[in-house]
């Protein structure tokens, strides 16, 4: 019994920590939000499906997560902000006292990440506004609207 609860507790703690970092990232311009929310939903689905479903239904964090889960898409405003923050990071790194090779590797990695982000599709405007809900959720974990479906 203890073996089953240890991983589940670890996933719950990871989900809570990731969610907290994502909320902080919503208010601090240099900290990301969506990537922490993706980790929170992933870990939550393994440790606490009800918490993962709550994040997916959240009015602020839910729509970007739904777009990613549904289409692997990133909204245009999120792309712009991510590329801007990557550019600021690259600029700060270029002025840092790191050695040449280390600096070059990190700048190349950040540039590659920027290219990857820009090449992701944008969410379709006519895509259904649904979220993925785990089949393992008990009915009480769902909102009344989802219970009727």
Write the layout of secondary structure elements.
Blueprint: H1 2-27, H2 34-47, H3 49-57, H4 62-71, H5 76-94, H6 100-118, H7 144-148
Helix pairs in contact: 1-2, 2-3, 5-6
What is the structure about, briefly put?
The chain has 149 residues and is mostly helical. 68% of the residues lie in helices and 0% in strands.
Key words describing this protein structure:
149 residues; mainly alpha; disordered C terminus
Could you walk me through the main structural features you see in this protein, from its secondary elements to its overall organization?
The protein is an all-alpha fold and 149 residues long. It has one domain (2-24, 31-148). The protein has seven helices and no strands. The protein has helices at 2-27, 34-47, 49-57, 62-71, 76-94, 100-118, 144-148. Helix 1 (2-27) packs antiparallel against helix 2, helix 2 runs antiparallel to helix 3 (49-57) and helix 5 packs antiparallel against helix 6. The longest helix has 26 residues, at 2-27. The radius of gyration is 18 Å and the shape is globular. Residues 144-149 have low confidence and may be disordered.
As residue ranges, the low-confidence spans are 144-149
> How many beta-strand runs?
0
What is the terminal-to-terminal distance?
34 Å
Helix and strand sequence: HHHHHHH
What characterizes the major β-sheet?
none
Number of helices: 7
> Beta-sheet strand percentage?
under 5%
Secondary structural class: mainly alpha
Indicate the percent of residues in helices: 55-70%
Mean pLDDT: 81
The radius of gyration is 18 Å
What is the total number of structural domains? 1
Which geometry do the CA atoms define? globular
